Structures are given as C-alpha cells and as structure tokens.
Amino acid sequence: MNARAALFDLYGDHLRSRGGRASVAALVRLLAPLDIAAPAVRTAISRMVRQGWLAPVRLPAGPGYAVTPKCVSRLDETALRIYRAGRITWSERWHMIVLEPVRERPKRERLRADLAFLGYAPLSEATWIGPRPSPELNTLLAAEQVRADRFEAVLDGDPRELVARAWDLAGIGRAYESWLAQAAELIDGLPDDAPDDRVFAVRSRLVHGWRNFLFRDPGLPAELLPPGWPGEKARAYFEQEAARLLPAAAAFVDRTLADL
Question: Any transmembrane segments, and where (predicted)?
Fold first, then answer.
C-alpha cells in the first residue's frame, strides 16, 4: 500500500467523521503501523495538495491538512460504494458519455482510469457507458477541461451481452475469489488479543484491498451478473470483518489524535 492510497483510506474511513482534518504529526503516527515512513507521508500529502484533495490548516497540534470539497465528494461517493446498504437497483437505462477527442496521452490515461473508477466502461475510444450517472462526473470533466455529450439510453437487445462486452466479468469474478482467500488469511493471522494499532493496520489493509475493486467493478445489479457471483460472498465477508474490527481500529485513531 503506498502512502497516497493509505491517506485516502485514512481520511475516508476515519478522519472524515472526525472533522476531516489532522496534524502532520498525527498522520505520520497513524500510518506508522502500516510501515509507511514519515518522508513518504509528507511527500504524499504534498502531492494531494497539488491535486486539490487536501488543504493546509493550522491546528492546535501544529500544521495539518483538511479535506477539500472535491475530496469530500470523492470520499462520500467512495464510502457509499464500499459500505453499500441494500440491494442495487437499476432503471434499465444506461448512462452514456461521448467524449470530445483528447489528443494528449497523459490526459487520456487519466480519464480512462477516473471513468473506470466512477463505474463506466468504454464501448469505443470516445463512448463510455455506466449503469447509472456518477455524481462525480461533472467534477472530473471540468477538472480535465473535456467536453462530453451525455445520454440516458435504452438498449435494443440483451443487456447481459452488452455487459459481457464492456466489462471482464470473468476476470473480476476471479479477482474476488483471490481477494477473499487473501483476506481470510490476513484476518486469520490476527490474534484475538492483538493491540489496537495492529487491528488498525489489518483493517486498513482489508479496506484498501476492497477499495481497489471500485476501479474494476461498476456495481451492476444482480440481474446483469452471472449466477453465483463471487462478489456477493466477498462483500459479505468484507462487511462482517470490517465491522468487527472497527471498534479497536477507531480506538487507536482516537487515542493517537488525543495524544497530540
């Protein structure tokens, strides 16, 4: 886990509900159980400030960083997808985006990664579809200064065939099975009497591994997924263990923030 990803997870999973800010000293201490060194934390903070995710603030414990409105939007949308409540519903309409040509390769690559994170898949270089509009789409397109036409579309055909063409469901399913095996091994290695900082580290790795599926799995409704979809079993395990480990992990965060 790199420092930038760990900071996103930390702010989203713990600090967002505690005012969305923390001192640099607290951030360094909170990421220490993940074996992330202080220089790496500071470098990642600087990068996130340049990208508009964090803003410097002065706190009683010293210099610190708070989430920006852009970051709040991303964290809240991410939390809704990570800790999904209830069954996914679908209007049977696709959200379609047709992008203007993007000549710069770095911008194209950023757009592809960000659109995939928001749940879209390409039908061609310029045309993307998703099962629902993303609340973050406008922010993304404005930041990249890319114009796009948007449509609510109804497919004339079998939507499962479209899904099979747009997303690698077999590959995503295998990834869920692999993640579940690794997650069970991670959890089984945690003693019942483990200290709070170790519980925090294990839970952080669990959440980070699960969060990575947001880049691959668009959150399709059950009627568009194969029977026995491995993602459901993996989700049930994640939700169970994330909830079980949360009190001890939260205690470590609260104690670290209070000690500074």
Answer: none
